[in-house]
Write a sequence for this structure.
């Protein structure tokens, strides 16, 4: 291996937050208190679709300790949550469209009283016709809950002509997937604190403080400069704290304004299940056409997402799913038509993968079915069709750099012993059957053309007189390791020791609106922004180094020293010298992405600036008597450009992989007639240590020259094609294809 | 009623309501917020503490039954910069992500290693199975427990 010239980037540095987390000293939102603080609880809609006739809260208001109960009419500012569309009210007005929608808010002296009062509020209502299935919702005679057709958004991608593809063989099938619940261990929560200047500070568990700032400013009718959002240590998010903290924090802020006191609002687990966003259930019909030699010549997709009662992030989740709906393959003729439909259920939103895992399950399952029809090894079929350098995506984007898909395929195959282990399903005998399966994915890093207005990132870097460095960004640490990785990038660029650099808690008053912490964008976006700031400071430092060493030419940094010519000076001494000379050692950084495109009519263009490529292989044992699937081995290979911190990269691959395994096998939220039946961990089964294989991470580094030290994005890809890899392995074991996720024992046994 | 027990090496005496949970006493009365509440139903293990050498979900444990017991919370494993070898192993192995399950996980590992010097893979999986983690996929947590076991 080539010896690296880097000091910190590429090393598995210790996480900045590890010490405070293992000692229990990290303060999550429920660990924080303010003097005279009140506690909030939410009054929620009892049925999926109701007209609210009247509300009787007289008994609740009489409870000792209740400070007030408030409704839509009491909202100080605008009652609409500012998201893609403005259809979701902070508090229901006249009607409520899903069971669990917020109708009112209670503020009380203690949490128990608040909850009791909320339960005592009587909503008198009339039930309205409701629709629960997205395909039903799109039919002409269905009850209309959004616009004229219940369609939040539709997209078309049209490349070539699927009718004139000249396929020798065609294959078509229908697939469906259920919800997935984020199941972050820390439920949603916020504390709003009124300020003496008439403004509001809000602390909370969140991914996107600037979304929250927007929401709090709107609900209070206040200017942004009087609203500060401070992210508290956040106990997992995975997309579930992208848009919904806008509501939670908005509610807390509204109560704090109306009562004039700090207000804490913490969700219980069941409440969190019932009211917070989920991964969309999805439905897809896909058809591939191929030549006899395995070359896929056409792909036709109809893909529908179940958006729930309000649009929230559905339009943009659908967009990501649309752009990626034909997988990581070069196909000349593509027709993708997609829809997000409204139903009377909890609004779905962002979850790791963002509209891709659903469609990846469909297209990667069908790809294996095509391989069988062609009498071909499914790995070979993927190799033939994998996008290569100079190849084009479904949107006709030419891929010219950083494309490691075939490398991920080759390395995953080698690690699994694929060539030796893969056999046709017909050759299996016995009650317990072994199977092996694979799946690949393409992942557009960042927000892309669908969110170009948000594709920006601010930062602030300051070297203190003692040489310690503080960095601030608009993206958040939510467990994924941003604080550590961004500190490494700053340390590397400045030439500062990693131990001396740390990231401040994310606070909207430190940097400009930097968009959301989503879409696996933080390393590239905040990383580049920080690098830009650090390079400016470094230019000033290097001047002093040359002066001090009396050398010209390039200044290098190594292990806490700056070097010029063959002389060197210690980092701390140079920084002290800089301060003595009053050199400006702070800088704001700003980075924005330009040039992503998406044609409204035909979906052609360059939707993303770079892609992460992945291949996963699952080995399973299927008990054909019980229907239980055990994952014996799981290999997950990703081309991420550059691993800034390999240990943290492995953690993302393993954690995302296990969420994907849960999605494939056990996580089954039951929503029956709009009513959630299993809103807890006893009913909704996420993997435990007992159910979990050791996931084998493989890191491929096809450098992305424009990324920080070559890095692309990683957070989401480890989940995306896990489910189809397992489904393909189950088929390989049993010879029975299951088109609906999750592969719970009932389904596997009955197949 | 008033009850007395030993927590993290110190004797304490507190008034508890009959319906109070041990979790409430630990977090609200004693201010030890390292113990987390994740589900309130004994399903996630975030509120795990050690009572007389056994791992319990403090959200299910009536406070009144703490009388005379010896309790350890995550705060009891470190003093200033001095941390327990299990905590050190969690840091070194990258077993921490969001950190919300971490205190409970560390205590689950401690109960295991206090009972078994050389636990098998199955022992480790079983010992951690009452503590949910959504971030790590458990691999690095298991590695940390193995590493801590070796160092003993």
């Amino acid at each position: 291996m080539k010896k690296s010239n880097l000091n910190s980037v590429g090393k598995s540095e210790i996480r900045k937050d590890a010490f405070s987390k293992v000692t229990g000293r990290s303060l999550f939102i429920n660990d924080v208190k303010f003097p005279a603080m009140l506690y909030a609880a939410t009054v929620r809609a009892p049925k999926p679709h109701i007209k609210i006739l009247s509300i009787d809260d007289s008994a609740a208001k009489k409870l000792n300790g209740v400070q007030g109960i408030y409704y839509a009419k009491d909202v100080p500012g605008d009652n609409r949550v500012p998201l893609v569309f403005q259809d979701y009210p902070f508090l229901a007005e006249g009607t409520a469209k899903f069971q669990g929608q917020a109708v009112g808010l209670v503020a009380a002296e203690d949490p128990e009283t608040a909850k009791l009062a909320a339960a005592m509020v009587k909503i008198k209502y009339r039930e309205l016709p409701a629709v629960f299935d997205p395909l039903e919702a799109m039919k002409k005679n269905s009850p209309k809950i959004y616009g004229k057709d219940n369609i939040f958004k539709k997209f078309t991608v049209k490349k070539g002509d699927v009718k004139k593809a000249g396929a020798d063989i065609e294959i078509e099938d229908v697939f469906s997937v259920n919800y997935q619940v984020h199941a972050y261990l820390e439920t949603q929560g916020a504390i709003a604190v009124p300020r003496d200047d008439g403004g509001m500070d809000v602390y909370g568990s969140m991914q996107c403080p600037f979304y929250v700032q927007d929401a709090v400013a709107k609900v209070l009718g206040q200017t942004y400069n009087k609203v500060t959002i401070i992210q508290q240590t956040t106990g997992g998010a995975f997309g579930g704290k992208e848009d919904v903290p806008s509501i939670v924090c908005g509610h807390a802020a509204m109560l704090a304004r109306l009562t004039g006191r700090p207000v804490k609002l913490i969700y219980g687990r069941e409440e969190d299940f019932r009211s917070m966003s989920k991964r969309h259930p999805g439905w897809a019909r896909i058809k591939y056409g191929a030549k006899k030699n395995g070359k896929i010549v056409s792909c036709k997709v109809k893909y529908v997402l179940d958006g729930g009662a309000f649009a929230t992030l559905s339009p943009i989740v659908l967009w990501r799913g649309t752009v990626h709906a034909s997988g990581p393959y070069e196909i000349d003729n593509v027709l993708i038509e997609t829809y997000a439909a409204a139903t009377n259920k909890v609004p779905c939103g962002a979850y790791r993968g963002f509209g891709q895992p659903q469609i990846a399950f469909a297209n990667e399952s069908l790809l294996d079915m095509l391989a069988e029809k062609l009498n071909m090894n499914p790995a070979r079929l993927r190799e033939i069709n994998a996008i290569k350098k100079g190849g084009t995506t479904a949107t006709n984007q030419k891929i010219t750099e950083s494309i490691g898909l075939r490398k991920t395929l080759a390395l995953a195959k080698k690690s699994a012993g694929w060539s030796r282990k893969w056999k046709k399903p017909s050759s299996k005998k016995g009650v317990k059957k072994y199977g092996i399966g694979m799946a690949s994915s393409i992942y557009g890093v960042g927000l892309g053309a669908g969110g170009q207005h948000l594709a920006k990132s601010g930062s602030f870097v300051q070297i203190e007189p003692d040489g310690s460095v503080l960095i601030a960004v608009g993206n958040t640490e939510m467990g994924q390791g941003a604080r550590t990785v961004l500190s490494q990038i700053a340390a590397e660029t400045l030439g500062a020791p990693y131990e001396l650099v740390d990231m401040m808690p994310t606070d909207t008053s430190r940097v400009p609106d930097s968009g959301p912490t989503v879409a696996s964008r933080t390393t590239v976006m905040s990383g580049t922004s920080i690098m830009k700031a650090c390079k400016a400071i470094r230019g000033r430092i290097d001047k002093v180094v040359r002066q001090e060493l009396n050398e010209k030419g390039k200044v290098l940094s190594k292990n806490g020293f700056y070097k010029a010519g063959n002389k060197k000076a210690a980092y701390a001494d140079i920084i002290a010298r800089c301060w003595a000379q009053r050199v400006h050692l702070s800088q704001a950084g700003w980075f924005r992405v330009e040039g992503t495109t998406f044609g409204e009519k035909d979906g052609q263009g360059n939707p993303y600036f770079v892609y992460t490529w992945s291949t996963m292989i699952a080995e399973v044992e299927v008990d054909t008597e019980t229907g239980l699937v055990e994952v014996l081995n799981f290999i997950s290979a990703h081309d991420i450009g550059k691993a800034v911190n390999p240990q943290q990269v492995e953690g993302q691959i393993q954690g995302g992989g296990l969420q994907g395994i849960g999605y494939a096998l056990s996580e089954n939220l039951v929503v029956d007639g709009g009513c959630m039946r299993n809103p807890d961990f006893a009913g909704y089964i996420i993997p435990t240590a007992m159910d979990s294989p050791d996931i084998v991470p493989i890191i491929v580094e096809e450098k992305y020259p424009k990324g920080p030290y070559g890095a692309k994005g990683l957070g989401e890809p480890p989940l995306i094609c896990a489910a189809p890899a397992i489904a393909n392995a189950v088929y390989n074991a049993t010879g029975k294809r299951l088109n609906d996720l999750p592969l719970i024992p009932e389904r596997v046994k009955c197949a | 009623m008033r009850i007395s027990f030993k927590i993290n090496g110190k004797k304490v005496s507190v008034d508890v309501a009959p319906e109070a949970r041990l979790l409430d006493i630990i977090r609200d009365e004693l201010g030890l917020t390292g113990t987390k509440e994740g589900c309130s139903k004994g399903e996630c293990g975030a509120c795990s503490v050690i009572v007389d050498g056994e791992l319990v979900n403090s959200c299910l444990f009536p406070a009144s039954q703490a009388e005379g017991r010896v309790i350890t919370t995550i705060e009891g494993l470190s003093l200033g910069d001095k941390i327990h070898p299990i905590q050190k192993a969690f840091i070194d192995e990258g077993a921490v992500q969001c950190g919300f399950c971490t205190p409970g996980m560390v205590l689950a590992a401690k109960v295991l290693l206090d009972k078994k010097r050389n636990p098998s893979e199955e022992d480790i999986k079983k010992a951690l199975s009452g503590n949910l983690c959504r971030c790590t996929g458990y691999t690095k947590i298991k590695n940390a427990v193995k590493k801590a076991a070796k160092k003993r």
Remarks:
- Helices of chain B lie at 22-29, 85-93, 102-115, 121-128, 139-151.
- Chain B has two domains: 2-76, 85-151.
- Residues 2-76 of chain B form a domain with the Ubiquitin-like (UB roll) fold (CATH 3.10.20.30).
- Chain B is about 35% helix and 15% strand.
